[in-house]
């Protein structure tokens, strides 16, 4: 399947605030034909504006509305730049999936200039005249879909990723760094209580391409993690150890174990 968008939307949100991209085309429930399709979008009006976002990835998806119930059928844009405009065109081949009504939607992973990501989803639409077949996973997910809403927005913006001069290169958001050596912020100090009820990834999965020819030189070789600046102290427990039990059963066990000392 080939999809070559000229430019596609991004949704990047700065610290702790949700930045939404609102698609204007395709509209909710619209039916399109495979081939060249133009997508358009606008700023939803939520703070911050799109101009505060850095870059984005765009995927064509089909299936349900929760993680694990839909498939990312193809990458439409791997390193999009919103400054190129609010529309993009691409080609979709008929064999990429089926023609189930409102099966398709767009997934956009936008990177905030201050660090972190926001994942936005478009409304659902239909691709008519498709000749492919959805996976069992996507078909199962579609059984629970009602209406034209796509999955809920996922706000993964890192509110702690503010850069300061004291941090030096470690204060620059990782996704904005270039060069063979990059710098990661220090690991956070463990909390005193376990509050998480279930495991959740900090970031969405990254797209990848399998090399079919010899690749060029690497664009990154080393990641350096900032040294911890916090400290902790410990001391010996001053409590006296408890005496050994002295009931008859333990005495018998001691005699039994003593047999094996020699």
From TrEMBL:
GO terms, biological process: (1->6)-beta-D-glucan biosynthetic process; cell wall biogenesis; fungal-type cell wall organization
A GO CC term attached to the entry: extracellular region
The keyword Signal belongs to this UniProt entry's keyword annotation: yes
Signal peptide bounds: 1-19
Keywords, comma-separated and alphabetical: Signal
Compositional bias ranges of the Low complexity kind: 231-248
Pfam families on file: Kre9_KNH (PF10342), Kre9_KNH1_C (PF05390)
PANTHER family in the cross-refs: CELL WALL SYNTHESIS PROTEIN KNH1-RELATED
Name recorded for this polypeptide: Uncharacterized protein
Native source species: Xylona heveae (strain CBS 132557 / TC161)
